[in-house]
Amino acid sequence: MAPEQLRVLVTNDDGYESLGIQALAAAIEEAGHEVQVVAPWDDQSGVGSSRARMIGRRIASKVGENGFVGIDGTPGIAVTLARLGAFGPPPDIVVSGINHGHNIGPILHSGTVAAALTAATQGLSGLAISIDSEDPSYFETAGTVAAEALTWLRDQPVGTVINVNVPDVPVSELKGARWARLAPYERSRLVLETTPTGDQLITLRTLPPPTEPDTDETLLLAGYITVTPLTGVGELPGDSAATHLSAAFTN
């Protein structure tokens, strides 16, 4: 393998046969990298970083005609298995996507983003790439952006994670890229509604877009690529809670 070439794990949460992952793998390979595709064999959107289902279980997988590996598990499991060498040499870096639809604002439940964050917990850097359409017309635009973002990510400290959202337009119509703050809330919010018969249903309610000019949602709507560096679980400074509990439980 040439020194400039990376072994890139490509995964997603839409399934190993999705159009997004095919476009992403093609773009990364065209950029000169070795591509390994391991992803859920069915839609695992919204599963977050769940990995508990792999404990004590046989690895169930199947290989498509194009060599892509589908597993019975989540994107986080795909990253873990690949990192452990279950499907060949471990990857150097993880790229997750191209997600059908954006990943903006609070992204706690995103399987696409969780795959990139899982990479960071295992000594790798990760890129999550999403396109702003549930039925995209320009996957190749997001693929081109992902390949270029990878040239930056490879030179960053291990454990670096970025979340990138791309407008569903031709490359020539992109306005550029901006650092973006995560929008303060999800536009599609789960609400509990009671039917006339008294049943309770969980439904989605779309809220107005935020007005802050530097959020990922605002910038994406304006036609910019949004780039947000992410961190997973980490400690914050301040020990007032510990002091409180210490006072209560120290004999």
How does this structure look, described?
By secondary structure, the chain is an alpha/beta fold. The protein has helices spanning 19-30, 75-83, 111-121, 139-153, 216-221, 240-249; strands at 7-11, 34-40, 61-63, 69-71, 93-100, 125-131, 161-166, 177-179, 188-194, 200-206, 225-230. The chain has a single domain (7-183, 210-234), classed as Survival protein SurE-like phosphatase/nucleotidase (Stationary-phase Survival Protein Sure Homolog, Chain: A, 3-Layer(aba) Sandwich), CATH 3.40.1210. It has a 9-stranded mixed β-sheet with strand order 3-4-2-1-5-6-7-11-8, with helices on both faces. It has a two-stranded antiparallel sheet with strand order 9-10. Strand 5 (93-100), helix 3 (111-121) and strand 6 form a beta-alpha-beta unit. Helix 1 crosses helix 4 (139-153) and helix 2 runs parallel beside helix 3 (111-121). The chain starts with 6 loop residues before the first strand and ends with a helix.
> Briefly, what CATH class?
Alpha Beta
What is the subunit arrangement here?
single chain
What's the average pLDDT? Answer: 87
What is the string of helix and strand elements?
EHEEEHEHEHEEEEHEH
Q: What's the end-to-end separation, in Å?
A: 61 Å
Class by SSE composition: alpha/beta
| CATH architect. name | 3-Layer(aba) Sandwich
- The helical percent reads 25-40%
Poorly predicted parts: none
Overall number of structural domains: 1
Percent of residues in beta strands?
A: 15-25%
Number of strands: 11
Globally, the shape reads: globular
Physical arrangement of strands within the biggest beta sheet = 3-4-2-1-5-6-7-11-8
Q: What characterizes the major β-sheet?
A: 9 strands, mixed
CATH topology: Stationary-phase Survival Protein Sure Homolog, Chain: A
What is the number of helices?
6
Q: What Rg, in angstroms, do the CA atoms define?
A: 20 Å
CATH homologous superfamily title:
Survival protein SurE-like phosphatase/nucleotidase
